[in-house]
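Aggregate trends can hide what the representation actually does to any particular protein. In the encoding step, the backbone of a single protein was reduced to a row of integers, each denoting a local shape. The record that follows shows the chain in one-letter code together with its fold in token form.

***
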Amino acid sequence: MINPAETPPDAHTPDLTITQWVPAKDEAEIKRVFADVRQVRGQSETAKNIADQHLFSTLVEVHRASEGAPFTGIKPSGQIDPGLMAADAALENGQIDRLVANITRKIENGIRERYHEAQRARAMADQSSDKGRAFVADYVNYIHYIEGVHGAAGGQGH
């Protein structure tokens, strides 16, 4: 995650905390935007805020593009996924076991919940078309969850 406070755009050049987030082929673009931002930041507090937002939006957009993901804007403070916060905390404190146990438990619970819903619906599926449709909906939910988890576990995620 990018913390704008770590690299103030009033520095003379972007440091590694900014450029490390983009591929080498895109570094020149970030440096150009950084230079543009430096020129207008001193004009007013409003100009500073707009310029900083432009820099960080460009940085996130270029980073997301390098992942093959769409840019959906910068999330306001406080909207960070708890899983991402836990992953960052594990890197900071050097302890991965709690994160692994927490995610493993959530995945297990998700599989079991969807499995039991599909099993209950399957037992009644031949009673009516509506109950059959309910089974299909629960089955699809179960299978799609498994596909997503399996894909992520095999390196096919994000």
User: Anything to note?
Assistant: The helical segments are 16-19, 27-41, 45-66, 82-93, 97-124, 129-153.
